[in-house]
Amino acid sequence: MPKLIISTVGIITAMLLLGCILALSAGAADMPSFSLERSFEMSCEQVHDIAVDSIGQMYVLCEGGDIQVYGPDGTYMCTWESNNWWFNGIGIDSNDLLYAVGDGVQVFDLKFNLLTEWRDVYGEDIAINDAGGVYVADSDRIHVLGPSGRVLGQWESRDAYHIAINSNGGVYAAGTDLIEAFALDGSKVFHWTSYKHSYDKYTDYMDIFAMAIDADDRVYAAGRMDTNFGEVPLIRAFDFAGRFLGEIYLGNNDEYESWGLPTAMAIDSVGRVYVTLEGGRIQVYRLHPMPSPFEPKIWANWQASAVSIERTEPVVISIANRINEWKYFGQMADWWLISVGPDGQWRYLDAHTMMFMPGIQPFQQARLSDFDELSIVKISDLNVGMHWFFFGIDTINNNVIDTGSLLYDIVLVNVYDGH
Fold first, then answer.
1. Residues 6+ apart with CB under 8 A from 151
2. Nearest by Cα to 187 from 224, 153, 212
3. How confident is the model over 92-124, as pLDDT tens digits?
4. In a domain, 262, yes or no
5. How far apart are CA 389 and CA 304, in angstroms?
6. What confidence tier does 179 reach under pLDDT thresholds 50, 70, 90?
7. Are residues 402 and 284 in the same domain?
8. Number of domains present in the structure of the chain
9. What is the phi/psi pair of residue 99, to 5°?
10. What distance in Å separates the CA atoms of residue 399 and residue 74, rounded to the nearest whole number?
C-alpha cells in the first residue's frame, strides 16, 4: 500500500470541507478550563524559548544564548554559558537530548556536553519527532534533517517562526497571526489564523509569540490581543484542524491585571503548559478538558482519521454517537453525512436511496440518541484521489448547518490505483 500523501487536489478538497465547516462551527468546540499550578520568578528577563525534559526540569533560553535550568518546583539549578554561540530556539527530544538552533544546530546531553553540530541550516525554532527527524523553522521555509544531520529537504511556509510536531508526525508552523499544518512530504493540509471567531477579526486578532502541541494534538498559541483597554496576554487552544477550543487570560481575572506578555511556551508529557512572561516569570498551567455534550464519530473501513484503499475495494462508512450530557438525549437535531471527493463536489447521504447525492442536506432530522459503531453505507468504485467524509450533528433542527451547535468528526479515504 502506498504512503498516504496529500496531493494539491487533496489540499483543495480538504480546504473546501474543513474551511467552511470550521468557520461555521467554531463556537461549538469543547471548552477546556485551565488552572494555574505554580508560578515563579527567574533571573532571565528576555526569553527566546523554553523546553522541558522527561522529569519536568525547565531549560530557558535567554537573550544572548545562555540557558538557565530550573527544577520542576521552580528551584534555580544552573546556567550554561553559550560561549558566543547564538541560539534562537531549543527543543528536547524523547531521549532527553537538547537541540539548539541558530546559526546551525548543536546537540547536547542535559549536562551540556556537545555531542554533534550541523552547520548546514539557519533557523528560528526547532522540533524533533520520535524517530529523530529534525525540523527547523526559518521564517519562510521549513528544513528537514535526518537523525545524522543530513539535510533531507525543505518546503516553503508563509510565516514559520515557531514549529511543533503532533502525535501523527504532522508539522505545524506559526508566526504573526497564522498557523499552518503540513504533511510529512511538505504538503499544506490545514491553515488558520489566531482569531477566536472568523466573523470578528478586529477585536479577536492576536499576535502569536509562541506555539506548542500537547499529547492529544491540541495546538496552543500564546500571544497578545490589542483592545481598547490595552494589550491582553492570552493563550488560545485549537484542535488539530484549527477549531477554536478556548482561551486563558494571563493575568488576574478578578482585577484584569496582566502578568506580562508571553515570550515562549512548552508542554510536557503529562499536559502541563509552561509559559514564560516578559520581565522574568514562568507560569505553569494544567488543562482540564470539558467533554462535549455529545460526540459524533465516523470511521471508514473501521479506521478513524484516515485510510488508504485500492480502487477496486469498497469502503464501509460507520458512525456512532455518545451522549455525555443526558439533557440532550431525545432532543431533535439535524444529522449530517457529507462527502467531498477529488472533484470538489459536495454530496450528502440520501436516507431513502442510501446514495450520496449532489448538494448539502441533512440525511435525517431525528432525536439525539446514544449508540455504538453502526455501519451505515457501503460505497464501491470510488474515483482515485482523496475523499473526505464528514459526520456531524447540530441541535438546531432547521436543515441548516448552524453556528454554535454543530459537533462533528471527519475521516479521509485515499483511493489509489493498484495496477
1. 120, 121, 143, 144, 145
2. 153
3. 999 999 999 998 999 999 999 999 999 889 999
4. yes
5. 11
6. very high
7. no
8. 2
9. -110, 135
10. 54
Distance of alpha carbon 197 from alpha carbon 12, whole angstroms: 22
DSSP 8-state secondary structure symbol assigned to residue 303:
B
Q: How does strand 87-92 pair with strand 98-108?
A: antiparallel
Q: Which residue has the cell 506548542?
A: 212
Q: Is 235 helix (H, G, I), strand (E, B) or coil?
A: strand
Q: Which residue has the cell 468557520?
A: 23
Give the whole-angstrom CA distance, residue 297 versus residue 22. 16
Task: Please tell me the distance from the alpha carbon of residue 350 to that of residue 52, in angstroms, as a whole number.
Answer: 51
CA 21 from centre of chain: 17
* Residue 369 belongs to domain spanning: 292-416
Q: Both 251 and 355 in a single domain? A: no
In sequence order, the β-bridge partners of residue 276 are: 264, 282
- Rounded Cα gap, residues 86 and 143, in angstroms: 19
Dig out the grid coordinates for 106 from the structure. Answer: 548543536
What are 301-307's contacts with CB under 8 Å, separation 24+? Answer: 302/373, 303/411, 304/411, 305/168, 305/411, 305/412, 306/4, 306/411, 306/412, 306/413, 306/414, 307/411, 307/412, 307/413, 307/414
Q: Which of 318, 214, 219, 321 lies closest to 271 in space, CA to CA?
A: 214
Q: Cα separation of 104 and 116, whole Å? A: 11
> What is the bridge-based pairing of β-strands 178-182 and 371-379?
unpaired
Give tens-digit pLDDT for 397-409.
Answer: 898 877 567 888 8
Domain for residue 15, yes or no? no
pLDDT in tens, 218-273: 899 999 987 776 788 889 888 887 878 778 888 765 555 677 899 999 999 888 99
pLDDT band at 61 (very low <50, low <70, confident <90, very high): very high
